[in-house]
Amino acid sequence: MDHEVIVIGGGPGGYVCAIRCAQLGLRTALVEKAALGGTCLNWGCIPTKALYSATKLIDRASTAHEMGIAYASPTVDLARLAEWKSQVVTTLVEGIATLLDKNGVELHVAEGRLDGPGRVALSTGETMSAGRIVLASGSSPIEIPGFSFDDPRVWSSDDALALTEIPDRLVVIGGGVIGLEIASIYNRLGSSVTVLELLPEILSVVDLDRRTIAALKRFLKQQGLDVRTETAAQSIETENGEASVRTADEASIPADRVLLAVGRRSNTAGLGLETVGIEPNRRGFLPVDGALRCSAEGVYAIGDLAPGPMLAHKASAEGLALAEGFANGRMRPIDYEGIPQAIFTDPEIASAGLSERAAKEAGREVLVGRFPYAVLGKALGMREPDGFFQVVADASDHRLLGVQIIGADASELISEAAVAIENHLPVEAIADAIHPHPTLPEGLKEAAEGALGRAIHVVNR
Question: Which residues are catalytically annotated?
Fold first, then answer.
């Protein structure tokens, strides 16, 4: 064999897997046809969060007078903003290339496909072989009838994050994570944003309690976003040079641009799966066992190709665990139930483990504690009083089952909970730990105290 491991796809699952394999002494090659870092780094997570941070300044500047500090009305240099976002991406991509080189990973800039057992064919004409082949080719946005990415009026998330213009009227089809995050960014930039969601609720594929969703919808409405659930978008129509989105209930919503954000599909086409007898399941994922093995000998799938949430850190965790399994002969299990998630709306939402609803549906008796941002001294000093912390624990042994946070810096606050859930700690582990004051993490401690019926700064219930 030319190599011990070949990884196809250089996203957050693939490049992490390749580096760890090389660190563990395995002869490793990485095949990437486009840009290192994949969708997350180049057209997804990183650009979105960079623009979320940048546009947050607009909101802060426009309301600073409430503290007695006044600014002139903010202006947006869109070309400079796009350039800054691209610089962030470029810096990180170059960093990955350096890490691959320093760790001894052989990089092939080409399209790779399976070419029978143990073989990978490259678009350059070269063929490589390995005892283990890891598929990590990621996913792509999907279309729906009546809306095609070939229509210049219809944006994918890639198009939206390219920052070519700020449309006066933006219609977002899809009330999931991607749709709401980009809707929030363009709302701050000055677009009039309407979000259309087919299902009865937004963020329907995320395990969040109704209280959290209701709070987010209230905050989005306060910010001027028009969120419509149970609304089916059917087509784009043009009349007198003006475009609009027609819905199933015959509404017509003016739209200068339409962001189609209804989900993503695993990139399985062109991988040569047929050469080794692998078939995607009905949802487009590649079936894998607990060790991430596909049905073909020596072929593995991680990240957006494997069932589970399409999250960059899920892909990285799978890549690391798989590499260590290759080297040690036994892959450590991944706690998929405890994987944290952060959603960059305003305010942010972060969660780990089970929601209260999911825990009860699983037949558990639970203890629940909540604590509002509005009584946190640090939150009030930041002018960020919106949101709350929620902890869910098993009533029998007090094991922490889940945490949800909606509020400022939720994405930064969830990791403490993720560590506790991953290690099966009781809620007392957070409640009894001394947290510095005044800080936002105090809110998590206070919620944990509340679950135990010993809250100090809110009334026990």
Answer: 437
